[in-house]
Amino acid sequence: MSIFTDEQKIQLLSDLVAIQSVNDHEERVATYLQKLFADYGVEAKLIPVAANRANLVAEIGQAGPVLGLSGHMDVVSPGEVSQWSSDPFTLTEHADKLIGRGAVDMKAGLAAMVIAMIELHAAGQPKQGRIRLMATVAEEVGELGSQVFYEQGYMDDVSALLIGEPSGYNLFSSHKGSMDIKLTSRGQAAHSSMPELGANAIDPLLALLYQANRDFRQTDRHNDFLGDLTFNTTVFNGGNQVNSIPETATAEINVRTIPEFDNDQVTTALQRLVDRANGQGAQVEMAVYMSQNPVQEPKDSPLSDLAARIGAPFAGGVIPKLALPAVTDASNLLKDKGHQFPFVVFGPGNESAHQVDEFVDRQMFLDFSTLYQSLFVAYLEDKRIYR
Ligand SMILES: [Zn+2]
């Protein structure tokens, strides 16, 4: 059923882009959507996560299996606004592109899911099963919103999950995990003419990182689909004067993990290296300050097969099933779900996320708001999920 005209759909996206939810203030997006849902008889609830930050959950349908939908309400900073060809928070149409911060990552996906739910509900759909939208805060930094959905049990009865991140006409069911780790080495300052009075904080940290590079890069643990774990020191600081023995040195490391060498195993292996260095006189402390799990679900599932089939006419060809480079809220939402869970990332998209003049293709946005409706109902009516 058509409730919204194309212009109204684009206005909705425009309204969402105008709300400057730059790593904060998602509550305003959630409140806007709650009111919109209410206008069409769909109940939605805000779940406070932090000051000015609230998740939104909305449901339509009947008893039966639950199809989970998720999208984040935060956006990244527009950066240098003067480099944009138009105001980043005013959705601007140019050559069939809708330009604005968050246009593609991922307010278009979010709006398309909301439109699909409202139109389905108005048509008395789905006739079996439920559709639950879980709109999150803080996906871009920390993934706090999806953590709260997981902890509060919103995923417990979900039997398949679609995240509307900007895949375009590609399907992703797997991605690596990501970890940020800080190592702090402490020594003893001394004049560099008398180093024996001090302890150089840089030396043991360098040795440790050298060993870690070898251990994490020359491993026999591989993943054919996702590729190998990557381990990179991305920030290094130490010392403050050329003729002083450095008292502290720090290193920050980003690790991209795979199920065969996961976050817990990385923590254990690196802690062992730290302990060994400390046993030889170093004073190094390790802090894992960000940890998102790898996700690997089957490429082929009832959900991904239907998405490929229903999306193909819109895509104008076969929709490939690939591994996603980036991390998503699935790291939290799919904790406990094992490796046979139907999951796809599928939303209006292209490569312009996080860039100046970020845009979504106008027609692709509109098409997703339609094809989502066919996909959601087809999934909930698919015999395979009732076995
Ligand atoms: Zn995103």
TrEMBL record:
Keywords: Amino-acid biosynthesis, Cobalt, Diaminopimelate biosynthesis, Hydrolase, Lysine biosynthesis, Metal-binding, Zinc. It catalyses: N-succinyl-(2S,6S)-2,6-diaminopimelate + H2O = (2S,6S)-2,6-diaminopimelate + succinate. InterPro entries: ArgE/DapE, ArgE/DapE_CS, Bact_exopeptidase_dim_dom, Peptidase_M20, Peptidase_M20_dimer, Peptidase_M20A. Pathway: Amino-acid biosynthesis; L-lysine biosynthesis via DAP pathway; LL-2,6-diaminopimelate from (S)-tetrahydrodipicolinate (succinylase route): step 3/3. One of its GO terms (biological process) is diaminopimelate biosynthetic process. It comes from the Bacteria. Residues 174-280 form the Peptidase M20 dimerisation domain. Its cofactor is Zn(2+); Co(2+). CDD domains: M20_ArgE_DapE-like (cd08659). Its EC number is 3.5.1.18. It is an enzyme of class 3 (hydrolase). GO terms for molecular function: metal ion binding; succinyl-diaminopimelate desuccinylase activity. Belongs to the peptidase M20A family. This is Probable succinyl-diaminopimelate desuccinylase. It comes from Levilactobacillus senmaizukei DSM 21775 = NBRC 103853.
